[in-house]
Amino acid sequence: MKAFTTLTGVAAPLPMANVDTDKIIAARFLKTIKRSGLGKNLFADMRYKADGSENPDFVLNQEPYRQAEILIAYENFGCGSSREHAPWALLDFGIRCVIAPDFADIFHGNSFKNGILPIKLPREICEKLMEDAKMGSNARISIDLERQVVVRPNGEEIPFEVDPFRRHCLLNGLDDIGQTLQHAPSIDDYEAKRRAAAPWLFA
Amino acid sequence: MAEKPRTLFDKIWDAHVVETLEDGTSLLYIDRHLIHEVTSPQAFEGLRAAGRKLRRPDATIGVVDHNVPTSADRLTAVNEPESALQIATLEKNVVEFGVPYIPLDDVRQGIVHVIGPEQGLSLPGMTLVCGDSHTSTHGALGALAFGIGTSEVEHVMATQTLLQKPAKNMRVTVNGTLPAGCTAKDIVLAIIGKIGTAGGTGHVIEFAGEAIRALDMAGRMTVCNMSIEAGARAGMVAPDQTTFDYVQGRPFAPKGEAWDRAVAWWSSLPSDAGAVFDKEVTLDAATIVPQVTWGTSPEDVLPITATVPDPASATDETRRAQMQRMVDYMGLVPGQKLTDVKVDVVFIGSCTNSRIEDVRAAAAVAQGRRVAPGVRAMVVPGSGLVKQQAEQEGLDKILLDAGFEWREAGCSMCLGMNPDKLTPGQRCASTSNRNFEGRQGPGGRTHLLSPAMAAAAAVTGHLADVRELV
Question: Which residues does the UniProt record annotate as the domain Aconitase/3-isopropylmalate dehydratase large subunit alpha/beta/alpha (chain B) (predicted)?
């Protein structure tokens, strides 16, 4: 996983609540056995017309948002399915950070595991960032994960909370499995006890 | 000192903590892992790349469901190449990693969330995960069951654990008796309408109360299935005699002395008196009217007796814009009676409503009636065994005589990733779980409702109040 330390870039405004995972990446694009290449189908039903041409009204089809690395949205971002194809598609497009008032749980967890930082900020602050984002390339937003601040184009710093373990993993680009396997003896012990207490769960 | 009263969730959580790390993250042991073709290929690839083994093949089982056609000729017909590749990849992976597998030509094949309980793979008190958000279904047995992403699928394969922080406890109590014509689906849609699609975020919901206790296991599964639609991490119902009667004798259920030990433990799991919930919601079942969604989020649900809402009535601009987008997408007119909304397609199936009880409910409405002209109505059983049972009961005949299609088991038209999908603009009365834009196919319009209500829509040609037909 690519480490996430600081990021300065264009933020795309997506002023919608309940952006669900079917919107982010529709099920018909999940027929892949790879993690890469999903970016072209990110938000496909909003981004393309029925004939496959780009919908010029959709934000990611406009300059400078084709280069967006940050997405600003409203409540309950990523609701719906557990598909990790949603963060894969965002990442493949180039999005490394999503800022919203809140996130659906599974999407929130999946993002961290792919080097995407989801930042929860109150609605009124998201509204300000939405206005910043609408200014396009004149208004780059910075994220500093070490210091846990979002820096607005006017220099104002907005602190944010993040789970310390997730922050540690992101800053260092650490995958979970390697870390968990350091606890293999504990898993062995637990498994032995579990086998004795609930033998019907073991073949 | 007496022990602190604990919830059902707390007890199962505590019994599965391998180790708690410094910052409060726990390594949670996973008893059962269900895998399917769509969210597992990248996880197997990750194991292979790192040279890791799958820790407990005996706790894992694979099945194909999302991508498979549901037509009668599906074993010989040519599938879409990408779907065929995903299925072939799973079949190769289960052999390489030694995972038990239920192939497409096995009568037990079906939707992963239908076959888990059916086979006794899902049991009270266990932790169960699957790379699918509707894994919450299995909570109906009194298990802690939740959906995970593919990175976590790989994590469970490699370590049989997940890194988790405990969820908060929420209890939804449904008191009273459900009126005739209303079902578990109406209960859960009414709950989502009340608390919203983020109402359960960060929480595990325990469903309790007289109306939940009165549900059979299929009904409890329908309710728990849609807890993710309320944003909850999982949904659960405390195990009771209904649960034990359902589980006993199933192929993977404990037997003999192990059964007695298991029941003794399971009986200790219901929440203690005085256990504290972070959030409590109460509903009176007697006030529930058959529900149907009008918008493109499951929270946008109304009694069938209602009219399409007017975006102008919204209290803020974001909501007004959202409602306008939904009304436009759905092709509805504010003020229109829901019972005047004509349908093109009726889909009875999905992990929410494809069990034998659901097929019976649809057949009871269909009996002696005909699918309205111009409507395509399909019934897709959740597993080969549900199909077999329905055919033994003659339900297939009732449905076929009424003009319904009777298909093979699979996810079918729930999610638009197999040949069963809507075409742009088509309107569907669907027993599935999500009415998102494009969910059942690009441009498709979905109204969520119960199997009985779906059958009522099929025979009348429009959204209809099933209470007028029974």
Answer: 10-461
